[in-house]
Description:
Helix content is 3%, strand content 44%. With 977 residues, it is mainly beta. It is globular, with a radius of gyration of 30 Å. This is beta-fructofuranosidase. Keywords: Disulfide bond, Glycosidase, Hydrolase, Signal.
Amino acid sequence: MRRRTALxxxxxxxxxxxxxxxxxxxxxxxxxxxxLRSPTAHWDFEEHTGAVxxxxxxxxxxxxxxxxxxxxxxxxxxxxxxxxxxxxxxYFDGYSTVVTAKGPGKLDVxxxxxxDVWIAPYAYEHGIDGKPQSLVNQHDPDARTxxxxxxxxxxxxxxxxxxxxxxxxxxxxxxxxxAKNRWTxxxxxxxxxxxQLRLYRDGLLIGTAATPDQAPVPASSEPVLIGRHNRPxxxxxxxxxxxxxxxxxxxxxxxxxxxxxxxxKEHAAKIAALPGHRVPRPDLTHDRARFDGDRHRPQxxxxxxxxxxxxxxxxxxxxxxxxxxxxxxxxxxxxxxxxWGHAVSTDMVHWRDLPIALAPAADSVGPDGCWSxxxxxxxxxxxxxxxTGGDDRLPYRQRTGLAVSTYQGDGDTDLPTWxxxxxxxxxxxxxxxxxxxxxxxxxxxxxxxxxxxxIWYQLVGxxxxxxxxxxxxxxxxxxxxxxxxxxxxxxxxxxxxxHWNDLAAVPEPGEVWELPVLLPLPGPQGRxxxxxxxxxxxxxxxxxxxxxxxTYYWIGTFDKRRYRFVPDHEKPREFDxxxxxxxxxxxxxxxGRSVIFSITQDRRTEQQHAQSGWxxxxxxxxxxxxxxxxxxxxxxxxxxxxxxxxxxxHIRHASVEEANRRLAGVSGDLMDISAVIEPxxxxxxxxxxxxxxxxxxxxxxxxxxAEHRFQxxxxxxxxxxxxxxxxHGGSVELDGGRLTLRVLLDRSMLEAYVNDSNSLTSRVYPTxxxxxxxxxxxxxxxxxxxxLDVWRMNGAYDTPVAPAAYDPPRPGDVDSLPNHDFATGDLxxxxxxxxxxFSDANVSPRNDWGWGGPFYQAETAEDPTGHHLWGxxxxxxxxxxxxxxxxxxxxxxxxxxxxLLVSGGNDPDQxxxxxxxxxxxxxxxxxxxxxxxQYRRVVFDLAAHIGDRIYxxxxxxxxxxxxxxxxxxxxxxxxRP
Length: 977
């Protein structure tokens, strides 16, 4: 349970009475009035380069922490700077940028204090754990000491000051926020004579709060942090939240109090000193060059300029332009605080970034998130957007909303500006009948909308359950609820479930359908067939190993009279053979093609997301059709060929051996490969991509003619021990006795299309610079290469930038710690020193912990099930059990760098993994968990101790919640005898 702090909040009030929004002037004290004095600290952020910023009063420099100061997957780069109000400004990226300052100077808070700063926010944080998005703070909220200036939800300005007994907060008026995408000057002051906190926005008073009679108490032992909260919430064990995102300029801390007249005068003087006496427009655009040199970031696939992306959705064509929207967290590469990103294209393959289309807003249907939806053109009114609005205040937190473009007013076909209607479009009332049960009201999302013959149709993803009161007593399966209307605004009439799966008989589609899509299936030459495809993503309430891995579909007929979908086959079919293609969305293009967009999950850990600064990207849009044999046709859209550059290979009618010789000089990580091969008795045909010459790293695409199976083998795709690997595939019949293969390779992205009937989407993360080779082989028979063409690919946004950062090779003349990754399935090589918490039963192959999600330990060739040491053993006391486990004693060799995977509870004194020098028992390095079960890689550079005898000790002296630690893959370079 979180410890609650006593937070005394008085918003826009004087003496407990609410002041009208015009705000009365603050009363001046009759005696002891304090005046402003010279600053004790001033950061003007004038630097153009470097990872420090200068504090002008003392002349000292303070470090600017930033994810790419020492980057993991790209060359290091400096924190981002842009033009400020006057001079330069520092860009805070929302999750990694923070200045750790030496202090506010010689500030005597008892005589009053004033903080003023220019900010231009890009996005507002949700207010995770109820904490403000901090601009600057030096406070201890538990002790109710120190100060904080920051933003609450939707940009509301707040100032906190601690008095020991109280932490007093003044809030600015909700209708006077620090607006996004413009410069705002904020001043916060403490007036001891008036016993008052005051907030000023652009020189105007926007809030006051009364303070106690006693003097404030500084939090002198805390650092001054600019851009991050002193007590941030750690999300997913990796991300510090409660951080600012946007530009900041000229942060000043001064002794004394600021009255309203002085605030107005000072602000007027600031404006008068600016060129043209106007505040400039801030440059908050995201520069994609931030990721230059990233060896894994795709170049010709659609992806956001930075941070988190979920499924692309709502594709729509209007006035010669294609628009795509996508789930986006602008504050970091993690899930949450979902907005709608927006990009535009003239061909669906070259993209241009546009401003965020939808953002959570207090007066909207989605104050807690704008989730997936769709778009459709409403006659001459331009497209309308249907979205899932999240509102945690409601008993059923999801409903669908509508947003309209400002096109009719501004005529801008980029459609950069959207307005959300305040009223919901559809909601999930209790007891909504659905087939064998009731619609699962708590799961009501992802509207898919189209118009046909004057009727608007809306599908909403949900499930079918039985209720007893408010409790779900049975789950029947997933469904798409169908509504109709004459206008997009409604009213919408519920027509029942379009289709559903019987969970007992057909469990694959899950308990709830997400992202339902219904599209017509054209035949050859685009002819109408009368058939439709229904696509869905399965969702389960609890953890399921198949979650976020699959997309299923049925081919069938849409019965518009009965509002039902009639499938041609009872069992759903898997759309893609990999485990990365999810989140379908689709539309019909002006030329009659049914096109599907998707998200390609990158399946990286939270730590890898944090280190890379981005997460996920869109797949190549694909066209779907009905083949003459009644099966689904799948191929990348024809426009993908526009991305082709130089042709690297052109092979016709050759043996596999000859083709392979001609491929010897072909290499790259941005390629389009097209091949037609006749097996001619060959048992397997294999195309190796991202391959080193010695096979150290390679990814294999192969077709087994006996099994009629196409698959990808990523067992050797990467030397990175934390990269997910494995083998995936499915059944494919040859087409006229031929194997037709199309492969799109884009850094970590790999999409393969087989016989125009099936796709396989995957991710590969090689570590070596030379893992760019291409190789074709076959086993048995005399396979004949009818044609094989290879093109270099150009970028979707700009000229592709070459990767420029690779992992250095690890020492090769060393041994490993015995059973370093618990691959034996027990504690062989380890000794239980004491206690009961560590035993053979703790060595587990489990990929998930049962109440949340995956550990993300990677499998190896030696241990394909991925054994690891899970410190939580429910059969031996769980969190309450304690003990000590020790490895064999070895001599540290090689480069002296030790790394390991660690997760579990956060208690550095009682719960840790340590490197211990055997001769004297000295702990050389240690690490605890972070209150999360997902593993993260920790590295110790112990080069100074090469030659020392050491051992690894895992200690659990903690009981109660999170009283366990998990360890895996302990890599120690062991000196050979």
